[in-house]
Design goal:
Layout lengths: L1 E6 L12 E7 L9 H13 L9 E5 L8 E7 L4 H15 L6 E7 L6 H15 L17 E6 L4 H26 L7 H15 L2 E5 L1 H6 L3 H7 L7 E8 L8 E11 L19 H16 L4 E11 L11 E3 L5 E3 L7 H11 L7 E6 L3 H7 L4 E4 L3 H14 L3 E3 L17 E2 L7 H10 L7 E5 L5 E2 L5 E2 L4 H10 L3
Parallel strand pairs: 1-6, 2-4, 2-5, 5-6, 9-10, 9-13, 12-16, 13-17, 14-15
Antiparallel strand pairs: 3-4, 7-8, 8-10, 11-12, 14-17, 18-19
Bound molecules: ligand BES, manganese (II) ion and zinc ion.
Length: 486
């Protein structure tokens, strides 16, 4: 989708040519500076009871006298915050997205300033609304034809709004790519396909990419990652993408994504119900590819490396068994008490691998635990880090992106459950605090790193009627990366 800003006084908006005008009204009163034809139409709608000036309410008006755009959608926002404007934007866009609207103009009325965050929020809302999964569904409806969004702004807001739109546009592309990759079924989105898609993205953006195959992964000594992969007929892939926006010597930021393209649980087989959703278990990897795409479009002056460990977790005669002991790339041994706790087994080797980059900071992103779903629900991703400054940066990035996370504790006491009689550690603790023990497991591989872990088990996709990938946390990660420019 194309995003533009256009400088225009609210009193001139009726003359604008677009297929539809979305009027976001901030607050519970009609703004005084609104164009008379629009103001009259809104007042009429309120009078008729078609529109209530309360947050979340909308109205659809056609052929408003004196307004050039043939369709007007009105949506009420609680306040002028980016979050409220986005919520109203979502509601308003929903009214017009399935119509023949190619060009949507958006006016936010009732606030003196429209900043970058609001512009960004509207851009991501529009892109989110028009994405439709079609790849394996020939009967899917035609996707919305909405292709252009023009944000009407006052002169003083134009620069900030344009920057916000550009940020939103890049994030939207990253989110869309992440959603598409994660939505593809496991028999399509194999580790091989994930690597091919990462390569396509990297080539298009001029990024360097390396894809390691099983032999090369063996040569690196990733015994823990390979142990998970060994039960599947699909070969594993280890993907490394490089964005270079600063001098070679500048310490990079590193993102590490969990890329389990299907998680059956392995020999510790999962129950059947809902198991299809374990195709989304590469959501962390998808968010890394999406963030690399977004960042390479925004070109910040820093270096960023995206790493993905990708394989399937399957039961077979060759599969890893409960009680098996594996040797990680770090040399530490792991007793695998549950083959379904596989994410940490692939991430630990990826975390050891990235030591070689001497990173400024490392963030891993993983659909790691059902316990995190229970703890936080789908509102916040789980954030775990021993580093207060890094945690604060990620919390702030989440707020700025409207893609939030919540910090969880990492006291040493939580590590105790990982003791094993037969290896340096076990791969699971007890059920209590399961998201935290998973993080404590990873922490054992990060002594040389400034590191944080995001558990996106509840936020990477939705279940139920709206089943599908969300593209989270591409927004959070992109904001975090952008904020690290010195
Ligand atoms: N991919 C799952 C985590 C998951 C479960 C994400 C449900 C979203 C919804 C992960 O590999 C897993 O199976 N974790 C186990 C760990 C347990 C065996 C310690 C879990 O959470 O049940
Ligand atoms: Mn699992
Ligand atoms: Zn998993």
């Amino acid at each position: 989708m194309d995003f533009h800003t256009q400088v225009m006084a609210p009193g001139a908006t009726a003359k604008l040519s677009a297929d539809a005008l979305l009027l976001v009204l901030v607050g519970d009163k009609l703004p005084a500076d609104l164009d008379a034809p629009l103001a009259n139409a809104v007042a009429e709608a309120v009078k008729l009871g078609d529109l209530v000036l309360k947050p979340g309410k909308t109205a659809y008006l056609r052929q408003v006298p004196g307004v050039k755009a043939p369709r007007v959608a009105v949506a009420v926002a609680k306040d002028a915050s980016a979050r409220a404007v986005k919520a109203a934007g979502n509601a308003g866009i929903a009214l017009v997205k399935s119509l023949g609207v190619k060009h949507l103009a958006v006016l936010v009325a009732g606030t003196d300033t429209l900043g970058g965050p609001q512009a960004e929020a509207l851009a991501t809302a529009a892109a989110d609304a028009v994405y439709l999964y079609r790849t394996t569904k020939p009967s899917a409806a035609e996707p919305p034809v909405l292709a252009k969004l023009t944000l009407l702004v006052a002169k003083g807001d134009a620069a900030a709004a344009a920057a916000g739109l550009a940020r939103g546009a890049a994030i939207a592309e990253g989110v869309t790519l992440a959603r598409e990759l994660a939505n593809r079924p496991g028999n399509h989105c194999t580790p091989t396909l994930l690597a091919a898609e990462a390569r396509t993205m990297a080539k298009a953006q001029g990024l360097k990419i390396e894809v390691l195959d099983k032999k090369q992964i063996e040569a690196l000594g990733m015994g823990s990652f390979l142990a998970v992969a060994q039960g599947s007929d699909e070969p594993p892939r280890f993907i490394v993408m490089h964005y270079q926006g600063a001098a070679k010597g500048v310490a990079p930021l590193v993102l590490v994504g969990k890329g389990i393209t299907f998680d059956s649980g392995g020999i510790s087989l999962k129950p059947g119900e809902g198991m299809d959703e374990m195709k989304f278990d590469m959501g962390g990897a998808a968010s890394v590819v999406g963030t690399m795409l977004a960042v390479s479009q925004l070109k910040p002056k820093l270096n960023l490396i995206g790493v993905i460990a990708a394989c399937e977790n399957m039961p077979s005669g060759r599969a890893l068994k409960p009680g098996d002991v594996v040797t990680s790339m770090s040399g530490q041994t792991i007793e695998v008490l549950n083959t379904d706790a596989e994410g940490r087994l692939i991430l630990c080797d990826a975390l050891t691998y990235v030591e070689r980059f001497k990173p400024a900071a490392v963030v891993d992103i993983a659909t790691l635990t059902g316990a995190c779903v229970v703890a936080l629900g789908a509102v916040h991703s789980g954030l775990f880090s021993p580093d207060d400054a890094l945690a604060a940066d990620l919390l702030a990035a989440g707020q700025a992106a409207l893609d939030t996370c919540w910090r969880m504790p990492m006291d040493d006491e939580y590590d105790e459950g990982l003791k094993s009689n037969f290896a340096d550690m076990a791969n699971i603790g007890g059920r209590p605090g399961g998201a935290i023990t998973a993080a404590m497991f990873l922490k054992r591989f990060t002594a040389k790193l400034r590191w944080a872990h995001l558990d996106i088990a509840a936020t990477a996709w939705k279940s139920g009627a709206a089943k599908g990938a969300t593209g989270r946390p591409v927004g959070l990660l992109t904001h975090w990366v952008l904020a690290q420019v010195k």
